[in-house]
Specification:
Order of helices and strands: HHHHHHEEEEEEEEHEEHHHHH
Largest sheet: 4 strands, mixed
Strand content: 5-15%
Number of strands: 10
Structural class: alpha+beta
Number of helices: 12
Length: 422
């Protein structure tokens, strides 16, 4: 029996976060947008609510409540302000990367600075994206070369979420230049590492609360222990870690979190638009009573419900796979990858349809900043470029449906296809 009914505990958590979104985030989102940051009080409240640690295992300091609970809460936050979740303090995507790509010991060490009472004041970041592909081979242009018991990292990373705020990074670099995308490695790097330069913050289309920038690494040296090799026992048949497989898992789970934010944005846009077309009158009746408008509103309602259902189902598949030990002997992980690909592709496209039609149905008011729909349309477009895009999700879904090997060069964001904000 499939159940889409949250548990009593989940309902209580959702209501707490919904109240936070309703009373704190929604009334002030224009202020946050102008200031391009969240105030300390808002970040502290988010930290006290446990946002950002929900899905991480208890063994490393997380709440251990699973990805399903996490996407429920992410939707509520995004309903209040789709950009807000990118401005909360804490480990962010670094936490998920450390848990998926590192050992339990590495994950605990990486997350420790973000767990205390002042965790809201610290940021973690993931440095994956690059502006240009390598001119002669597949893989990342940033290179990490082994030098005795350490690695030397050289290169430039782009599109790094909260680059200028972060205290600690997971930096991806090429460790085997002959292996293409299967030769990528990940390293924990602190902001004060010698040779690390934070590049200026970019001005972006939407999500102004987030800070997107880059890193330059000129001979940054890290110890061998800083390399994330994949969790022990995560390899085929529980053997040596399969880093490429772990990398795809990280991007899939992170993409699902972003997809939940797209659901929250779509829901917010739909609700505001539905109210507007029911009160704005033309020719003696609300414009929502005209068939063309009514059908559009009905279609967007279906988008919201379908996107939510796909995201919930994908999150539940990951929770079931993880509960089984993360093995893929029964196809659990491939099932989760398929459901994630479907959810990510549909949720991002649904958010854009809701945003676009929201602006359209508001008429001239739609592109005036007195109304929120123009912001949500801009945020929706940029959300679709965060983590795995709809195009990469389609590639992943096709590979799983056809029983093909998952090619990281096709499903991971690459400079040749589409850079991603992580």
């Amino acid at each position: 029996m499939i159940s889409f009914e949250p548990s009593d505990d989940q309902k209580l958590m959702v209501e707490s976060v919904a109240q936070f979104a309703r009373t704190v985030l929604r009334p002030s989102f224009r202020t946050f947008e102008r200031e391009r940051a969240l105030p300390e009080s808002v970040r502290r409240t988010a930290h006290e609510l446990g946002l950002g640690l929900v899905a991480l295992p208890e063994a490393v300091g997380g709440a251990g409540l699973g990805l399903t609970t996490a996407v429920l809460l992410e939707e509520e936050v995004a309903w209040g302000d789709p950009a807000a979740a990118f401005g909360f303090g804490g480990a962010g995507a670094l936490g998920l990367a450390a848990c998926e790509l590192g050992t339990a010991e590495q994950a605990r060490a990486a997350l420790d600075p973000f767990l205390g009472g002042e965790g809201h004041a610290r940021f973690g970041a993931v440095a994956w994206g690059e502006r240009k592909p390598h001119p002669a081979r597949a893989g990342l242009s940033t290179v990490a070369k082994k030098d005795g018991t350490s690695y030397r990292i050289d290169g430039e990373k782009a599109y790094v979420t909260n680059a200028d705020r972060a205290d600690r990074f997971v930096v991806f670099a090429q460790v085997d230049e002959t292996a293409g995308w299967n030769g990528v490695g990940a390293f924990l790097v602190d902001k004060d590492a010698q040779g690390l330069t934070v590049l200026p913050r970019e001005t972006t289309l939407g999500l102004d609360v987030a800070s997107f920038g880059g890193l330059r690494l000129d001979g940054v040296v890290v110890p061998e222990s800083a390399r994330l090799l994949g969790p022990r026992g995560a390899g085929p048949d529980g053997g040596e870690p399969d880093f490429t497989r772990a990398l795809v898992r990280f991007f899939a789970k992170n993409a699902l979190v972003i997809a939940a934010r797209s659901v929250g944005l779509a829901r917010a846009t739909f609700e505001v638009t539905r109210e507007y077309v029911d009160t704005r009158k033309a020719f003696g009746k609300p414009i929502g009573h005209f068939q063309a408008v009514a059908f559009t509103v009905a279609d967007r309602a279906m988008d919201v419900e379908a996107a939510r259902g796909l995201v919930w189902r994908a999150a539940a598949a990951w929770d079931a796979s993880d509960a089984a030990g993360g093995t893929d002997t029964a196809g659990g992980e491939r099932e989760a990858l398929l459901r994630t690909a479907q959810a990510v592709a549909f949720a991002h496209e649904a958010a854009m349809r809701c945003g676009d039609d929201g602006v359209q149905l508001h008429g001239g008011a739609g592109f005036i900043r007195d109304y929120p729909v123009e912001k949500w349309m801009r945020d929706g477009k940029q959300l679709g470029l965060c983590a795995m895009t709809a195009e990469q999700a389609d590639q992943l879904a096709a590979a799983v449906e056809l029983g093909l090997p998952v090619d990281p060069g096709l499903v991971l964001p690459t400079p040749e296809t589409q850079n991603a904000f992580v």
